[in-house]
């Protein structure tokens, strides 16, 4: 069994206390027996590369990430949007979960953090699926929606950024979703909101 403290020193109850697991020990047990063994090697590498970052706790938790990967695969997502990239854990996970001709528009106002994960994303051979935009998210979403071909064209949106704008992101992501109905998913951290269309 891997020593969790070595792999993810900050991945403790601080991140899990909003969930059902009410003890560090139980959370570590779940991570070590169920989550880490299923984690692709390069995601593990990205997680380890992020661990020394002072804000490493911001990264998507690997257990939540695996739920996201499952959703992406279940709906055969091809075109997705991510708001809040940080070092790229959820981005790499999404890029590994969509088909080779899939596309992710990934927006973050801090390119510096993205540069930490970028070499690992390149190593995974999925960089061609990613269009990273170094910007505040709202203006990019508004610009995207000015183009009628983008409206209703996304299968999946993952919002993991500044909470104060979640309602604004929600409104815009609804416009970006697939018109075809039951194939789109909008997932958002912090407010634990998951809407399937
Ligand atoms: C929780 S972290 C994202 C974690 C990421 N999903 C992962 O798996 O590692 C939040 C990110 O949102 C970015 N962010 C915060 N407010 C933003 C805004 N208004 N526009 C764009 N990015 C923003 C921050 O720079 C930070 O990298």
Automatic annotation (TrEMBL):
<dbReference type="InterPro" id="IPR029063">
    <property type="entry name" value="SAM-dependent_MTases_sf"/>
</dbReference>
<dbReference type="InterPro" id="IPR002935">
    <property type="entry name" value="SAM_O-MeTrfase"/>
</dbReference>
<keyword id="KW-0949">S-adenosyl-L-methionine</keyword>
<dbReference type="GO" id="GO:0008171">
    <property type="term" value="F:O-methyltransferase activity"/>
</dbReference>
<comment type="similarity">
    <text>Belongs to the class I-like SAM-binding methyltransferase superfamily. Cation-dependent O-methyltransferase family.</text>
</comment>
<keyword id="KW-0489">Methyltransferase</keyword>
<dbReference type="Pfam" id="PF01596">
    <property type="entry name" value="Methyltransf_3"/>
</dbReference>
<dbReference type="InterPro" id="IPR050362">
    <property type="entry name" value="Cation-dep_OMT"/>
</dbReference>
<protein>
    <submittedName>
        <fullName>Putative caffeoyl-CoA O-methyltransferase</fullName>
    </submittedName>
</protein>
<keyword id="KW-0808">Transferase</keyword>
<dbReference type="GO" id="GO:0008757">
    <property type="term" value="F:S-adenosylmethionine-dependent methyltransferase activity"/>
</dbReference>
<dbReference type="GO" id="GO:0032259">
    <property type="term" value="P:methylation"/>
</dbReference>
